[in-house]
């Protein structure tokens, strides 16, 4: 099982390099169900892996001049505020039992995993459906309220469940700004790196880490993103999104079934 977990690290990087996100959608379930971490620790580890992997991937895109830094910081600063809000104010104050009455037991870990699963279902829908045509907008005529609120939402999600939010960032850049897909992927990775690394640093003292394991897993993920970026030069990531979307859908349903139905047996 652990071999499968380490192999998935390569897949995490590969997916991020191809479609500009999706790494945490794989990493959190792997940390919980393969390596046995609790949900809070898994989200923290995911933030580190996704943050470092996307940062390394961003370096290559910086050299290619593919990152729109003006858009990245306009979207990214509200995201950072959202991350801090989630990791410092919401997550530490969630009670161990969210619901424990009427015969219903919902723990903090179950709540975070179910929230993550719901987000996976939303992400899978966005990936499976046919791409809409981007709006022909420029940065100057963009609705800043929508862009900033989207950034804040992504930050809150990133902080709560360790998801970088690439599946939300890329469509926002393409649809709100009319950014070309490859440039949206590059800019998304840069935003994800800021959000995820800050999210990990903000709560790293709250969970224990095996740095040897974490750095080894992250190293494999970095190798994967190099492969993903290389493949993306020859293949349109949008063609792979529907396939990945079906995988995400299956994993989301698995988490819901595991947390709601199978746990009742123990």
From TrEMBL:
It comes from the Bacteria. Coiled coil: none annotated. Belongs to the 4-toluene sulfonate uptake permease (TSUP) (TC 2.A.102) family. This is Probable membrane transporter protein. It is found in: Cell membrane; Membrane. Pfam families: TauE. InterPro entries: TM_pro_TauE-like, TSUP/Inactive_protease-like. Keywords: Cell membrane, Membrane, Transmembrane, Transmembrane helix. PANTHER family: MEMBRANE TRANSPORTER PROTEIN MJ0441-RELATED, MEMBRANE TRANSPORTER PROTEIN YJNA-RELATED. GO terms for cellular component: plasma membrane. The chain crosses the membrane at residues 7-34, 40-62, 69-90, 110-128, 152-178, 184-201, 213-231, 243-262. Its main location: membrane. It is a multi-pass membrane protein.
